[in-house]
Amino acid sequence: MKHRTHCKRGHKFTAANEIWFIDVNGKDQRTCRKCYNHRRNVSYKIKYRSDEEFRKKEKARVAALREKRIKQCVSSVSVENATAT
Ligand SMILES: [Zn+2]
After folding, report:
1. Ligand 1 centre from 16 Cα, in Å?
2. What's the 34 CA to ligand 1 centre distance in angstroms?
3. Ligand 1 centre from 82 Cα, in Å?
4. Cβ(33)–Cβ(16) under 8 Å?
5. pLDDT tens-digit profile of 11-47?
6. CB within 8 A of 19, min separation 6: which ones?
7. In this structure, is residue 49 part of a structural domain?
8. Can you give the pLDDT at residue 81?
9. Where do the DSSP E strands lie in 2-85?
10. CA of 45 to the centre of ligand 1 (A)
11. pLDDT tens readout for residues 40-83
12. Is 17 contained in some domain?
């Protein structure tokens, strides 16, 4: 394996910025601390945000459905009234 000086995202590998770990195959692997932290932050944020967004979307969806139903109800009533008179 080629000894890289930069990670695939272009961060320089330094003693302070590299993390060594053993992968599932028992091989020494090196990763960039910045990428590692970034991944952790991103996965946390995505999870957190998706939960928050899901709740927001669900709320908006329910509100939209309710509004649609009211509109349909109102229009069907007015149509009934129009045909009745
Ligand atoms: Zn990196």
Report:
1. 12
2. 5
3. 68
4. yes
5. 999 989 988 888 888 888 888 999 888 888 777 777 7
6. 30, 31, 32, 33, 36
7. yes
8. 66
9. 18-22, 28-32
10. 18
11. 877 777 777 778 878 888 889 889 989 988 888 777 776 666 66
12. no
| Residue 29: partners with Cβ closer than 8 Å, 6 or more residues away | 20, 21, 22, 23
| Residue 76, in any domain of the structure | yes
pTM of the entire predicted model:
0.44
User: What is the span of the domain harbouring residue 41?
Assistant: 33-84
Distance CA 19, CA 40 (A): 14
What is the structure's pLDDT at 54? 80
- Give the total number of structural domains in the chain: 1
Residue 1 has pLDDT above 60, yes or no: no
Whether 26 is in a domain gets the answer no
